[in-house]
Amino acid sequence: MALSERGGNGADNAIGRWAKRLVPSVCDVSVTNVCQATCNFCCFAHDKQIVTNRRFIDTGKFIAALPLLHRHGVRYVNFQGGEPLLHPDILELTAAVGRTDMRAAMISNGFLLPERIDPLIDAGLSTLLFSLDSHDPAEHEENRGLKGVVDRLKTAVAIAKARGVPTIAVVTVSKLVDYQRLPEILTYVGCDAVSFSYPRREPFGSSSLVFNPESDLVDFTGPELEKAIDGIVELKRRFTVMNPRAALEDLRRFARGEAQTIACVGGRRYFYLDWNLHLWRCEAWHEPMGSVLDLDRLPDYTDHCTACNLNCYRDSSAVMHFGLAVADTIGEVSKGRIGAALGRLGQPGLGASFQAVIQEAGIIAKLAPRRPAGKT
Ligand code: SF4
Ligand code: SF4
Asked: In which band, very low, low, confident or very high, does the pLDDT at 8 lie, cut at 50, 70 and 90?
């Protein structure tokens, strides 16, 4: 297993250190394992009765970890769960990130959002993500076990948009989704964009429970998954879809049992922090890197992992891969290692990643948070 950077494989000079900061890092933070929903494809769902030890991240320790995360390049903190709004200190956690130059985003099932969205934005929330499972509001509410949640989302999205906060629906690729009709509910709720979460039945190695081995809704054959990918690609013509084409093409390779081309940034520029303050390479990985409070002593992973289709990591990898190769090349040249520098530029997937950067630049600019606005 290739481990380097913080763990050290040789001292970096000033240019090398500058180059490493060219690509900012992301940390998904699961603040609790508690959820009030009943989603078919998720073992956090309270009706599955798998979560018996209800956990909430320690607020003081998380705040103490923020300077460490910042020092190691994290600029984006995504709160998730379970349901993050069930953490009693979620406003304090958001405000702590908001006081830094890191951006705080959140993915929620949305049920508690209408009452919380204004204080969250006051605290510094910069992007709102929420789940939708179907083009059909009734199907979504039935899967979630949250009656009335679609109209509650519509209310919260309107508030967020009025205050300049981008809103993104996250749709799990499941048998509930009709890609042709999906814009109906996206338009009804009023969100700016949609991002697809790729289906998962296999258990994760980490503490994350966003999978269900018994779910019929995410039980896809390869050809069925490819058909879903076709639906997403087609939807890109009609709605703002966040998933880069390069990541969707790698997902297609995954569906065919072929090797994916783009090296994953999991454990290098994208991390998973859980309610125990354990920092993981990603939700899928089998062992934690260690306590986030020991981050200075934890090495990054730099191997070419393409083992899974976890969308946050794979989508980010499609966009970051090119920038990381450039940063690595600059670092090698600064040390006079020309052969190694050329090797960095010869990695597979760089052309597709460069195209992803160009294609996503417009979307990223469109969804950049606007000037924080006062309450409406
Ligand atoms: S998918 Fe989200 S809302 Fe649904 S049970 Fe899992 S954590 Fe809760
Ligand atoms: S490919 Fe999957 S298992 Fe490998 S680092 Fe990325 S998210 Fe983790």
From this structure: very low
Q: How far is CA 365 from CA 104, 270, 360, in A?
A: 17, 21, 8
The most distant pair of C-alpha atoms in the chain lies apart, rounded to whole Å, by 62
Residues in CB range of 52: below 8 A, 6 or more apart: none
pTM of the model: 0.92
Range 10-367 classified under CATH 3.20.20.70: yes
| Phi/psi of residue 79, nearest 5 degrees | -80, 135
> Cβ distance 179 to 228 under 8 Å?
yes
35 lines ligand 1 (CB under 6 A): yes
Q: What is the DSSP string of 224-274?
A: HHHHHHHHHHHHTTTS-B-S-HHHHHHHHHHHTTPPPSSPP-BTTTEEEE-
Q: Is 179 strand, coil or helix?
A: coil
pLDDT digits (tens, 9 = 90+) for 210-253: 999 999 999 999 999 999 999 999 999 999 999 999 999 999 99
Place of tokens 């010869």: 346
Q: What residues contact residue 205 under an 8 Å CB cut-off, 6+ apart? A: 284, 285, 286, 287
Q: Of all helices (H) and strands (E), which one includes residue 306?
A: none
Query: Phi and psi for 314 in degrees, rounded to 5?
Result: -70, -40
Q: Single out the residue of 98, 130, 126 nearest to residue 114, CA to CA.
A: 130
Planar angle of CA 207, 290, 322, nearest 5 degrees:
85
Query: What is the CB < 6 Å shell around ligand 2?
Result: 264, 266-267, 281-282, 284-285, 305-308, 310, 313
Angle at 18 between CA 14 and CA 21, to 5 degrees: 145
Q: Probe ligand 1: pick from 29, 31, 35, 209, max atoms within 8 Å of CB? A: 35
Answer for the pair 90, 79: CB distance below 8 angstroms, yes or no. Answer: yes
> Which secondary structure element, helix H or strand E, spans residue 28, and what is its range?
strand 25-30
